[in-house]
Structures are given as C-alpha cells and as structure tokens.
Design the sequence.
C-alpha cells in the first residue's frame, strides 16, 4: 500500500485473510462443484460481521469505513469469490435501507443481517438489465400500501433471503422517474422463488428468480420517497461497485500467486519456466494491472468515505478496471500453467470462471464506461 493503513485496518485484513485461508479455501472447490451455497459459513460470515462491514455499530454492523471493507473483501474473495458474493449481496441489499430508510426501518431490518439473516437486492428483470429504468414490476398504490406484480431475475441470495429490497415502477410509461423501492418480507403471500440458475462461475452463490404475484407491501415498507427509487438504486450501486472491484482484485491476486509459484517450480528446457522472459513479461503485466486495479478500488473507497457528492465515475472506474484485470490476470495465469491450469484438479480454471462475472454484474463494464464518460463530460461543464 502506498499509504499507511491504521492498526484497525491491518487487524481486520489479517482476520479476513486467516478466515479465507482456514475456512473458505478448504471448501471452495467442493461447493463450486456441487453448485451449492455453504449456508453455515455464510451465516457465520454474517455473525462475524463480514456481510455488514459498513453498517454502523448502532444497527449491529461493523461500523468500518469503505476502504476497510474493500480490504476485507479482497481477502475473502482471495478465498472464494462465489462464497464472498453471497456475503456481499447482503450489504448490497442493506445499502438502500441504510441510506434512505427511516429510523424504524433501519432498526428493524439492519441488525438481523449481523445475526445470520440474509437479504437480496432485486433490481434486474428479464427486460431490464443495463437499462435499469425499464423495470416493469408494477407497484400499484392501494389502501395502506402497494400491490407488487412482476418478475425479478439473476437475484443473488434470491432463494436464501429473509427479506428483499425491491425496485418497482408506479407508472410503466414514466421509466426511471416512476421507480420506488420497497422492503419485502420473504413470507409475504404471493412472493415465490423461481428458477435457480446454473452458472459458469461464482457457483457457490445462490442466484434465482423472485416472483411477485399480488404481493401486498405495507406503506411503512416504502423506502425513501415514492418516486425516488432510481436514485436509491444508483446511489447504492455507486457505493457497492468498489466492493465488486475488491472481489475482482482478490481473484486476480489468488491467480497471480498460483501462477508465480508454478513458474518457480515447473522445470522445462532444464530450468524453471519463471527464468524465461516469455513468462516474466506475463507476470510483470499481471502484477502491474493488479496493483493499478487495487489503487482504483482504494481511491473509490476513500472518496466514498469522504462523503462529498457523487462518486459514480470513480466507482465505475474501480469496478470496470478491476473486473477487466481479473479476467486478464486469470487468463494469463491459466496460460502459464498450460494443461495443468485447464484441469479441474487445480483452482485456476475456477478463478477464470469466477472472474468473468466481474465484468458483468452490478452493471456491465460497457455501462461503467458510459458512466465514466458522462463523468468526464460533466467535469468540463
Ligand atoms: N446517483 C444519483 N442520481 C443518479 C445517478 C447516481 N449515480 N445516476 C443517475 N442519476 C439520476 C440522474 O441525475 C437523473 O436524474 P434527473 O431525472 O433528475 O435528471 C436520473 O437519475 C436518470 O439518470 P440517467 O438519465 O443517467 O439514467 P439512464 O436511464 O440513462 O441510466 C445507467 C443510467 C445506464 C447508468 C443506469 O441505468 C445503470 O446503472 N444501469 C446498470 C444497472 C445495473 O448496474 N444493473 C445491475 C443490477 S445489480 S446486479
């Protein structure tokens, strides 16, 4: 790190590293293969505070800053990005409540997340991915609340959550300007969990459809203002994307370490392959990009901690660059390991599969670049 971490940050980083080493790594391949979520570990991570790092202590969370959260998430993702995605999905679902919820909502819904309960963020729909304003899940105002109808897809923790933060439109013709956000309890009549997805990577995380059929949501579960849902979603994603960057850095670091170790041990043409420039050039490029990605993640987190205005551009840069870096580093690391890298006996092919989603979820990297470009143009006005 080019800047000094506080002793608290160093301790948290160490605790997370040891947890990843001792608890996450040993089970990562098994749950990836089985495509199951290690629920006991996820609940333990919740109780240890790994999924509520930035939630203030008064609501049961870790009360740490965004920078510390990113340092911790990098360590956990070094252990397994799939298992860590399940934990971070909790904080993604919690941000709308933390940022826009009233005191009653915060007191009711945030503390359980540090006690083994899970939550899920329901924004994406079959027809609304990159275009988040195109949501068609309808929230019809009725006496004392709203009736929700619609389908959400690709929801992390969808099948495991105890409650959902859900985005729905009050008027389909008004797009982004008519979105509202709600907290919806898992046991609400009419709410059901649909298809569980089978994925290329992060297979230890649970991804499902969530279906709303005439689900009544009481008005006290409306988050923020009635038509303020789009801003809630965007502000949440601005804060959450550096976390995805940290996940990506954790995967890339794990892959670089394995490739470097392999190139010291693997002997061909009479010497370890790390002695050949063809391999050294790869290791150098991987290491440079990894460090640059980590710095962009730290920069976005530090800006989030300063809490001065929107951090959309910095957050998008961290997510896009780190996501691309994870894909680049894992691809090169696998290449260094050759046939061994390709085999499922080694973790490298999992790193590469896990890395791909980093360029896609919480907004594709193409969307991140649009956000960055808008930020650049805005700064010239
Ligand atoms: N913070 C606060 N307000 C924001 C904002 C942000 N980060 N981004 C946009 N807004 C506001 C704008 O200021 C604008 O407000 P006004 O109506 O008052 O002018 C409004 O929201 C609409 O903004 P914009 O016109 O930029 O919206 P677009 O429909 O063009 O969409 C993108 C913007 C593409 C950035 C957005 O749809 C997006 O992030 N898509 C990706 C979604 C995503 O990440 N999905 C993954 C789901 S979670 S796995």
Sequence:
């Amino acid at each position: 790190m080019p800047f000094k971490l506080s002793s608290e940050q160093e301790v948290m980083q160490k605790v997370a590293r040891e947890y990843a080493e001792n608890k996450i790594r040993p089970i990562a391949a098994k749950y990836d293969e089985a495509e199951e979520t290690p629920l006991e570990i996820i609940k333990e991570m919740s109780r240890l505070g790994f999924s509520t790092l930035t939630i203030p202590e008064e609501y049961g969370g870790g009360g740490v800053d965004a920078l510390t959260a990113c340092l911790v998430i990098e360590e956990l993702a070094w252990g397994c990005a799939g298992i860590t995605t399940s934990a971070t999905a909790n904080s993604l679902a919690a941000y709308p409540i933390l940022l826009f919820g009233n005191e009653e909502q915060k007191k009711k819904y945030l503390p359980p997340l540090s006690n083994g309960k899970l939550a899920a963020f329901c924004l994406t729909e079959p027809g609304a991915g990159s275009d988040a304003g195109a949501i068609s899940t309808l929230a019809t105002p009725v006496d004392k609340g709203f009736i929700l109808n619609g389908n959400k897809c690709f929801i992390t923790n969808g099948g495991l959550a105890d409650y959902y933060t859900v985005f729905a439109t009050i008027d389909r013709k008004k797009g982004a300007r008519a979105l509202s956000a709600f907290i919806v309890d898992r046991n609400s009549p009419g709410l059901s969990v649909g298809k569980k997805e089978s994925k290329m990577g992060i297979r230890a995380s649970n991804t499902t459809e969530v279906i709303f059929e005439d689900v009544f949501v009481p008005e006290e579960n409306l988050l923020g203002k009635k038509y303020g849902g789009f801003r809630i979603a965007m502000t949440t994603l601005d804060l959450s994307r550096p976390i995805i960057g940290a996940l990506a850095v954790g995967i890339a670091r794990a892959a670089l370490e394995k490739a470097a170790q392999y190139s010291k041990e693997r002997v061909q043409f009479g010497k370890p392959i790390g002695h050949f420039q063809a391999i050294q050039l790869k290791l150098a490029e991987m290491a440079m990009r990894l460090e640059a990605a980590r710095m962009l993640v730290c920069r976005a987190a530090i800006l989030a901690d300063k809490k001065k205005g929107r951090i959309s551009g910095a957050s998008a840069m961290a997510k896009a660059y780190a996501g691309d870096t994870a894909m680049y580093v894992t691809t090169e690391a696998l290449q260094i390991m050759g046939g061994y890298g390709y085999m499922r006996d080694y973790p490298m092919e999992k790193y590469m599969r896990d890395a791909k989603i980093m360029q896609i979820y919480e907004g594709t990297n193409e969307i991140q670049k649009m956000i960055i470009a808008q930020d650049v143009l805005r700064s010239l006005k």
User: Anything to note?
Assistant: The chain has three domains: 7-114, 119-229, 237-379. The first helix runs from residue 7 to 34. The longest strand covers residues 145-156. The mean pLDDT is 97.
